[in-house]
Design goal:
heterodimer, A: Rossmann fold, Neuraminidase, 2 domains, six-stranded mixed β-sheet, 4 helices, 30 strands, globular, B: alpha+beta, 60s Ribosomal Protein L30, Chain: A
Chain lengths: 437, 157
């Protein structure tokens, strides 16, 4: 679907400015930047409604990041119509806007939607970016996310993550006979779609970098195997031909390989499968549980989970399997290591004293930080900019057996801005996509 | 700069599912007290008169003495009915990460299978599968429930 929707962008104007408005997102507890997002203007047909919708999605994206505080439109002094001619910066300073976003939508004679926006530094009275995008009108949500990403990047210096999707496991039914289905949605919960019908138990979906394929574990015919599902064709295929269970799959960042656990006579080892040659290679050889492998972004290293030291801990090895070394040394057990797309950190689940935590540490094991905790929190996944994590949280009505709920949450790398990601039913095992190509 | 200080924390509305669920399992309940007349050599006979499951300690896959005693009874039955085949399921409690638990469940299933084989059950008669923490036998977030869920179940096929 997304593939067909070509989005063309063009630069209207970009001025480098000094002492400009900017958010430093490396510190915790950032004060959200007040930003005024005016309704995008449209003249004919449904252009006005599209403009309103696009503005609303941009504002929601920026607000959810925790870094921006969209100002209530009712406080605006200058009208959107007047703003379209020329901003009166004094009017915007008066309502404490630091940045101002305006835009216009227009359906072209060829049917394409032209969306133009400008970002202003209200105090410097300068345009920070101006861009226009051409796409099909049905694709307006993506345009809004792309605009929000452009604003995020211009004001933080970091890439955005709004033009992304989430694949996860939608859960229903009693715990002893849980029904699990793969589901996909935009990062903001829109365009929700089920990918499997629930007849087979499925867990741990992960995106290929092109977003067209998903690798996951299915208990099809009660035989746990790693599969790859093509989202466009619905076709699915088993990865590799192994006699035992295969599980815990992940793509390499170039999409050419899948790394996973293979049970060899009841013992889990890590294997790499080259999807072009269909050749597999065993990377670990140890009578321990070796699982949850995740490549470094450059593919040179692999972090994984092993109990070879006695309990479940985090390890890093070279991508040929050599030089495996333990990196987690804190109290407790560690699982689900996932390498950040920036390469600088490894996110994990930690279990200690009956509590579960989501945390991060550097690939050498230093700098461990715990971001959130609960009865059960598990399975962190990184936004493509390596600044935000998503995970799932299991909670229970006090002591009531069978009342468990499973919900997705996102949290900033600083440990702030934890928020539920709303899903139609219970949810687990989220995987965040790269930016949509 | 006149940045307004606003709380970064959103109110976390933790919605609780309202489903009503039985407190014991349906799918693989094996205590078999309701079984009326189990034909000798049947799956029901095995569940009712032998006992289909053994239990493990937290994050462990070695067989406890009570587990070995239980498996001895299974061996006896399997020798009495040499045409019966079995699938051994390895299960975990919910207090671990999903992927590690697949490995742990596999290891538990293997402990059971290896014991049965060592006592003379032909390797071709037993297969194994790990369900990790996907299929708890009982609900509840307490030690008693978790102990029931850390199990190896011999399913006669």
């Amino acid at each position: 679907m997304l593939r067909k929707l070509l989005i063309m962008g063009l630069m209207l104007f970009a001025a480098p400015a000094m002492a400009e408005v900017r958010i430093d997102i490396t510190q915790g507890n950032v004060k959200p930047l007040p930003v005024a997002i005016a309704d995008f203007q449209g003249a004919k047909g449904n252009e006005g409604q599209l403009g309103l919708d696009i503005s609303r999605v941009i504002a929601a994206d920026l607000e959810r990041s925790g870094l921006f505080k969209p100002i209530d439109k009712r406080a605006f002094i200058q009208s959107a119509e007047s703003l379209a001619v020329q901003p009166r910066f004094g009017d915007w300073r008066q309502i404490n806007a630091q940045a101002l976003v305006q835009g216009r939508v227009e359906v072209q004679p060829d049917g394409r939607l032209r969306t133009e926006f400008r970002l202003w530094d209200v105090y410097a009275e300068q345009q920070m970016i101006g861009q226009a995008y051409f796409t099909s009108p049905t694709n307006w949500r993506r345009v809004a996310h792309i605009v929000a990403d452009a604003i995020y990047k211009r004001l933080t210096g970091e890439d955005g993550y709004f033009d992304t999707q989430i694949v996860y496991v939608a859960e229903s039914g009693p715990m002893t006979r849980r029904v699990k289905r793969l589901a996909i949605m935009d990062q903001d919960g829109e365009n929700h779609k089920f990918l499997t019908d629930g007849s087979d138990l499925v867990v741990t979906p992960r995106f290929a970098p092109n977003l067209r394929e998903i690798t996951y574990l299915s208990f099809y015919r009660n035989t746990p195997r790693v599969y790859i599902l093509n989202i466009d064709t619905g076709r699915r295929e088993v990865v590799g031909d192994f006699p035992g269970m295969t599980y815990a799959p992940r793509f390499s960042s170039d999409g050419n390989k899948v790394i996973m656990s293979v049970s060899v006579d009841g013992n889990s080892e890590i294997y790499e499968m080259d999807l072009r040659t269909r050749r597999s290679q065993r990377l670990t050889d140890h009578p321990s549980i070796d699982t949850s492998p995740s490549y470094s972004p450059d593919g040179s290293q692999i972090t994984f989970n092993s109990d070879r030291g006695g309990t479940q801990q985090l390890y890093v090895m070279n991508s040929d399997g050599s030089n495996a070394r333990r990196i987690s040394f804190g109290d407790g057990r560690y699982g689900t290591p996932v390498w950040s797309p920036r390469g600088d950190l490894i996110a994990f689940t930690k279990m200690k004293g009956g509590t579960f935590y989501i945390g991060v540490m550097r690939p050498d094991g230093s700098g461990e930080r715990l971001l959130t905790e609960g009865y059960l929190v598990e399975a962190p996944t990184w936004a493509p900019n390596g600044r935000v994590l998503m995970f799932f949280r299991q909670s229970q009505t006090r002591g009531k057996a069978g009342s468990d709920s499973f919900k997705l949450y996102s949290i900033d790398l600083t440990g702030y801005n934890e928020r539920q990601v709303v899903t139609p039913m219970d949810a687990s095992d989220p995987a965040w996509s790269p930016l949509i190509p | 700069m006149k940045l307004r200080v606003l709380s970064l924390f959103a109110a976390l509305a933790i919605l609780t599912a309202c489903e009503t669920a039985p407190t014991t399992t349906g799918s693989d309940a094996g205590k078999g007290t309701q079984v009326k007349q189990a034909a000798p050599g049947s799956k029901e006979d095995f569940i009712a008169n032998v006992g289909d499951r053994v239990f493990f300690d937290y994050d462990k896959s070695d067989l406890r003495a009570d587990a070995k005693a239980q498996l001895d009874k299974q061996v006896e039955w399997l020798k009495k009915y040499p045409n019966a085949k079995a699938l051994v399921e390895g299960h975990c409690d919910e207090r671990g990460t999903r992927e590690y638990n697949f490995g742990l469940g596999e290891r538990r299933a293997k402990s059971v299978v290896e014991y049965l084989k060592a006592k003379g059950v032909a390797a071709a008669r037993v297969r194994m599968v790990s369900y990790g923490k996907e299929r708890p036998a009982v609900l509840g977030s307490n030690d008693a429930s978790w102990a029931q869920n850390r199990r190896g179940v011999t399913v006669v096929e």
